[in-house]
């Protein structure tokens, strides 16, 4: 985050009855982690800014007598006297609602069923959606592509119930470098990426893979290697040899 | 007017005001014609054109000043023509009435009786002051709307315009914030947040530059007070913004106007250019050392962009979707800089507070809600229009005394306040004083001031379904509870209105509402269950009738309604038969007719047209 905490002093916070001391601006999620408390989440990832879209990490935050619901992934702890309950009845009700809705949307996604079971939910009461639908619209792929890869090849299309993930105008994106980070980060493995005969297919585009002159294996899309090489200003033959062989050589 | 010289001090403004005040009027007679969006829709532009032609023909152009203004609020009687000094208001005027108006009123100084507003069968009102619609109103914020030419800086200056700015620039910023605090001004956009507190937080938040923004992305169905203010008195809104920017310490302003408001945008742009010319914007405003500029941003049609963080994302050129506001936008808003966003009406209140003082302002309204509020009163109501009343006026006064009650002597059923995320309030709450806190207590909200009146023919389950459908379309889709939750709640409501409701549906709706309120990301999602919850709370019997008895008491839900003809009452006149678009009605002349249920699409036209109450709806 761009904002720097002005004070380095630590803040005391109570999570599920346990005390944690954290630096200001630490998120509830991070603070809980220091105590070994894991809060379920679908859309957050250490590599990107918390997005707060899936709402699975909703927890109950108490300050004095006032209680409110916040998402653990992006709530910054900035003051003393906060008491957080990650599994209060109200927090579990919110989490159940979210998971029940997502299960209706994506009936065949295992991670949802596992998470739901953890909060005592066996199946969704809502009308089932398309069995083939696996995207929960957590946005992780978009955020990885934007913040980590810097390619901005995919984004959100339409709004509300029609929202989906796609390339601009759902056409082949020339900004995509075929790196596959989106597919790798996806919590429900819904982004299709295949490799055959030295060609990787993703987002309806084909990417030629580079062949390692040492081991003869295909190792990464040429577009990706070129983009990274130019970004960091590396010599032309920097990526000539695959990562494994380069490691061996060193 | 020739290009004005930028004013360099408050004294120069005062001198300009005095010289303008002493100018002689253009003609002996002034004809005022509102020409805002609603008036234009009803033909005001044609009236103006015709009037200019007729005056030219009669060689009267030099004696008559035509003043084209914004909206006067009473949309129901548009187009309106006001003539001074004759002091008469003509309503529902058409271009064809113009020659008579010119001859009778402008030449002979007589009144055209038939164009006066009928207060009752016997009595017609001659002036605006005599109209019941205006009787309880206190038009402070809208005082210039419909009176001055919104494209004329001179007109605004003559009302004392920009004198509040001159005064404010001689105050310390903190003094201005204190004054706004003492006045008790709360945000008019929906949340009702304490304006001074917001300004102070923004002022003291670290980070430069700070931004001051006008939220003109008014999107609630049936609400148009902000549009009317921008169309009718743009300088007032701008003056409020400049004062606020000075108080906050902001050098850059924005206005975010929805795409559907072209006239509001045009008039505001004109105001911006004039303000630059006169030195109310730019460097060293009125010699105070304060610099400020304003940039215009147009929305692309998304309702959610009225939400502060989505609006700011949109200004940055990003996808217009909200983010968590655990760190408020007044601390980290546009480009992570402190950003203060207020609604059009909130900004328009600021010059009033500076000019008349916090004490004056705080005397109007209730304990927790000060000043006036503009409401757009629409729906099943006789006097549709924009109403400015002191906070604390009752719903009954707005709906019946000002609004003139329900057309065709139908019974009042509910009033929906606060836009799509507001709630429906029943007859038993009509005596409720309208302010921020009272409305929230009863499960609705002030919102931006939309009021939709519903009569006995309204099905409350259908109303909940309608608003949820709106919210389904307008949800940005970022967070799960709003995107998926509204969809599933809507599916249940659709089921109920189709007669397929089940026991437990209402309880499930309530359970989902609680979860969505807790888990949704932004205020739009968090308040989206309001229409459902308030209709369940006050009209539970209608839900039960749909689910248990498979009946729609108001006769709205098509799946639950059947039409039949009572042979005893039917005279065989054939009116229903001729109006039926699907040929579902058969019958010989002067013999009782019959409806074929297989062909009937339940449009209800037979029910509407029958003069003998022979068509039964059940």
Structural features, described:
The complex is a heterodimer of chains A (250) and B (618). Chain A has seven helices and 13 strands. Chain A is of the alpha+beta class and 250 residues long. Chain A has two domains: 1-134, Ubiquitin-like (UB roll) (Roll), CATH 3.10.20.740; 140-249, no CATH class. A five-stranded mixed beta sheet of chain A has the order 2-1-7-4-5, with helices on both faces. Chain A has a four-stranded antiparallel beta sheet with strand order 10-11-12-13. The longest helix of chain A is centred in the middle third of the chain and has 17 residues, at 89-105. Chain A starts with 10 loop residues before the first strand and ends with a helix. The model of chain B has no long low-confidence stretch (mean pLDDT 95). Chain B has five domains: 10-130, Glutaredoxin; 153-362, Rossmann fold (3-Layer(aba) Sandwich), CATH 3.40.50.11540; 372-455, Ubiquitin-like (UB roll), CATH 3.10.20; 460-548, NADH-ubiquinone oxidoreductase 51kDa subunit, iron-sulphur binding domain (de novo design (two linked rop proteins), Up-down Bundle), CATH 1.20.1440; 562-617, 2-Layer Sandwich (Alpha-Beta Plaits), CATH 3.30.70.20. With 618 residues, chain B is of the alpha/beta class. In chain B, α8 (173-183) crosses α11 and α20 runs antiparallel to α22. In chain B, a hairpin with a 7-residue loop joins β17 and β18 (594-595). In chain B, the strands form six sheets. Chain B has a five-stranded mixed beta sheet with strand order 12-11-15-13-14. Chain B has a four-stranded mixed beta sheet with strand order 2-1-3-4, covered by helices on one side. The interface between A and B is large, with 40 and 36 residues.
């Amino acid at each position: 985050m761009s904002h720097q905490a002005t004070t380095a002093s630590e803040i005391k916070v109570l999570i599920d009855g346990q005390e944690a001391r954290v630096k200001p601006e630490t998120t509830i999620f991070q603070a809980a982690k220091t105590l070994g408390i894991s809060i379920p989440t679908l859309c957050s990832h250490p590599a990107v800014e918390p997005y707060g879209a899936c709402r699975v990490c909703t927890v109950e935050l108490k300050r004095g007598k006032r209680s409110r619901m916040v998402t653990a992934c992006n709530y910054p702890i900035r003051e003393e006297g906060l008491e957080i309950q990650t599994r209060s009845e109200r927090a579990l009700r919110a989490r159940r609602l979210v998971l029940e809705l997502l299960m209706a949307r994506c009936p065949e996604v295992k991670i949802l069923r596992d998470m739901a079971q953890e909060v005592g939910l066996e199946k969704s009461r809502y009308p089932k959606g398309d069995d083939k639908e696996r995207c929960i619209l957590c946005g992780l792929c978009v955020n990885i592509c934007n913040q980590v890869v810097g390619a901005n090849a995919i984004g959100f299309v339409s709004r509300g119930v029609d929202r989906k993930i796609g390339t601009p105008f759902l056409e082949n994106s020339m900004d995509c470098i075929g790196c596959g980070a989106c597919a790798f980060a996806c919590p429900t493995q819904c982004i299709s990426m295949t490799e055959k005969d030295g060609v990787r297919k993703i987002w309806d585009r084909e990417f030629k893979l580079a062949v390692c002159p040492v081991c003869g294996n295909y190792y990464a899309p040429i577009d990706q290697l070129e983009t990274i090489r130019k970004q960091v200003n590396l010599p032309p033959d920097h990526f000539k040899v695959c990562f494994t062989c380069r490691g061996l050589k060193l | 007017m020739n290009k004005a010289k930028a004013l360099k001090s408050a004294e120069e403004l005062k001198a300009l005001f005095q010289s303008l005040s002493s100018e002689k009027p253009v003609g002996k007679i002034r004809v005022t014609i509102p020409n805002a969006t609603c008036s234009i829709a009803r033909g005001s532009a044609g009236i103006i054109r015709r009037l200019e032609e007729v005056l030219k023909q009669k060689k009267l152009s030099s004696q008559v000043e035509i003043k084209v203004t914004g909206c006067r609020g009473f949309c129901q009687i548009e187009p309106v023509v006001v003539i001074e000094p004759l002091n008469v208001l003509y309503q529902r005027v058409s271009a064809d009435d113009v020659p008579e108006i010119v001859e009778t009123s402008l030449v002979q100084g007589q009144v055209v009786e038939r164009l006066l507003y009928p207060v009752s069968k016997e009595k017609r009102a001659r002036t605006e002051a005599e109209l019941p619609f205006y009787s309880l109103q206190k038009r402070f914020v809208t005082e210039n709307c419909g009176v001055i030419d919104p494209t004329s800086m001179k007109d605004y200056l003559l009302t004392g315009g920009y004198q509040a700015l001159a005064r404010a620039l001689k105050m310390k910023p903190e003094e201005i914030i204190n004054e706004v605090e003492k006045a008790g001004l709360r945000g008019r956009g929906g949340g009702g947040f304490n304006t001074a507190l917001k300004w102070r937080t923004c002022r003291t938040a670290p980070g430069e530059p700070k931004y001051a923004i006008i939220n003109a992305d008014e999107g609630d169905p049936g609400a148009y007070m902000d549009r009317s203010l921008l169309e009718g008195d743009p300088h007032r809104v701008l003056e409020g913004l400049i004062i606020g920017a000075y108080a906050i310490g902001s050098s850059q302003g924005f206005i975010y106007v929805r795409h559907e408001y072209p006239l509001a945008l045009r008039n505001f742009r004109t105001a911006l250019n004039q303000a630059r010319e006169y030195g109310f914007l730019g460097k060293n405003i009125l010699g105070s050392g304060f610099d400020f500029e304003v940039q215009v941003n147009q929305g692309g049609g998304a309702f959610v962009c009225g939400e502060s963080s989505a609006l700011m994302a949109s200004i940055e050129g990003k996808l217009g979707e909200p983010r968590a506001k655990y760190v408020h936008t007044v601390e980290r808003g546009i480009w992570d800089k402190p950003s203060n966003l207020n609604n059009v009406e909130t900004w328009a209140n600021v010059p009033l507070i500076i000019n008349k003082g916090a004490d004056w302002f705080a005397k109007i309204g209730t304990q927790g809600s000060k000043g006036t509020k503009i409401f757009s009163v629409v729906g099943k109501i006789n006097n549709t229009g924009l109403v400015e009343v002191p906070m604390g006026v009752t719903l009954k006064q707005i709906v019946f005394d000002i609004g003139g009650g329900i057309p065709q002597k139908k019974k009042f059923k509910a009033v929906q306040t606060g836009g799509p995320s507001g709630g429906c309030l029943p007859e038993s709450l009509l005596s409720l004083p309208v302010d921020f806190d009272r409305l929230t207590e009863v499960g609705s909200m002030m919102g931006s001031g939309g009021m939709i009146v519903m009569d006995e023919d309204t099905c409350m389950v259908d109303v909940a379904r309608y608003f949820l459908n709106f919210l389904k379309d307008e949800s940005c889709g970022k967070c799960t509870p709003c995107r998926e939750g509204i969809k599933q709640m809507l599916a249940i409501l659709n089921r109920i209105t189709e007669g397929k409701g089940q026991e437990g549906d209402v309880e499930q709706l309530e359970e989902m509402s609680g979860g969505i309120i807790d888990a949704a990301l932004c205020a739009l999602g968090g308040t989206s269950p309001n229409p459902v919850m308030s209709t369940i709370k006050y009209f539970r019997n209608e839900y039960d009738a749909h689910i248990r008895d498979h009946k729609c008491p108001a006769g709205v839900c098509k799946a639950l309604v059947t039409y039949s003809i009572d042979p005893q009452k039917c005279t065989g006149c054939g009116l229903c038969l001729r109006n039926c678009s699907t040929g579902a009605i058969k019958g010989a002349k002067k013999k009782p007719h019959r409806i074929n249920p297989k062909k009937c699409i339940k449009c209800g036209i037979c029910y509407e047209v029958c003069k003998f109450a022979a068509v039964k709806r059940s």
